[in-house]
Amino acid sequence: MQEELELVMRCIEIIRIREISCESCGALRRSFSRRNPYYKSIYRPKTGDTGRKRDKELPNIEDLQSLVLASHKNTGRRKIREIQNCQKKFLRKTLRQFLYKKKSTPWIKRWRNRKVNPAQPQIQQVDGGFFERFGSLLRESAEIAKEQEQKEQIECAEQAAKVITKIEEETEEDEEKKVKSDEENEEEEIAPSDTEDNKADYIAVGWNIDDLYLEILYEILHNVGCDVSYDIGQTALFSYIQDAFKMSNEKHEELLAKAEQKEAPDILLNVEIIEAKDIAPKDSSGFTDPFVTLYLTSNSSHRYNTSVKTETLNPVWEEHFALPVTDKSIEDTLCLEVWDFDPAESVREKLGKMFQVKGIKGVRKFVKEVAVTATTGQHTNELVGMARIPLKTIPASGMTMWYSLDKKNKLTRQGVVKVHLAFGSEKNQQVAAQEHRHLLRILLLHELESSQVSPYWWCGNFSGQAEAIITQHSVQSGLTVTDVALSQFAVYSSIHRDHPLNFALFSNLIDKLIKPIQTMTVSEEEAKLFWDSVKRLLPSCFATIRKIRKKCPNEKATLKMIKEVLKILSQLITIDPPENFNLFPANLYGWLSYAGEGPNCDINATLRDAISQGASDWFNYILENNQTSDNSEEGKLQNMLKIIQLVRVDLQRAIEYYDRMFQEIMNFQYAKCLYILYQVRIATMVEPEVVTMCKSLKTINYDWNCFSDSEANEPLALGTKLFELYLALQRFVVLGQGLCPADYESFHIRNFYDWFHGGVTQWLDIAVFKALKRIEKAVELDNLKPVDNTVKFSSSALDTLTIFHQIKIFWDQLNWPDVEGSYTFIAKIIDDICRCCVFYADRTSQRVEGLGDRVDVYEKRFEVTSEWCLAINNIDYVRQSLKPFTDKLGMEDVIQQLSELKSPLDAQRCQHTLNNVIENSIDTVRNKIIELLETVTNKMSPAMKRLLVEGAELFSQDSNSIDKVMRYLDNNLATLHEHLSEDNFNRILEIIWENLAEILSDLIQSNIDKRRPPSFFANLRNTLQLMVKCFKQSEGDSECDQLKKVEYLLFINGLETSELIHQVHLDRWREQQNIKQGPFGELTVRAKFEGNVLFVEVMNARNLHPMDSNGLCDSFVKVCLLPEEKFTNIQKPKTQTQNKTQFPLYDETFKINLTSEQKNIKDGLLLFSIRDKDLFGMNTQFIGEAFLHFNEIAQSTESIESHPQLQLPIHRPTNLNTDLMKALESRQGDKLAKEFVKKFKQKMVKETN
Amino acid sequence: MSNRVNMRPTSKNILLKVVILGDGGVGKSCLMNRFVSNQFDENSFHTIGVEFLNKDVEIDGETYTLQIWDTAGQERFKTLRTPFYRGTDICMLTYAVDDKASFRNLNMWKSEFLFYADIKENTHFPFIVVGNKTDVSCEERKVTQMEMEMWCDENGVASCIETSAKNASNVQEAFKLAIRHWLKAESKGDKNESCYAADTVDLNKRSSLNRSSCCMGSTEE
Question: MHD1 domain location, by residue (chain A) (predicted)?
Answer without folding.
Answer: 723-844
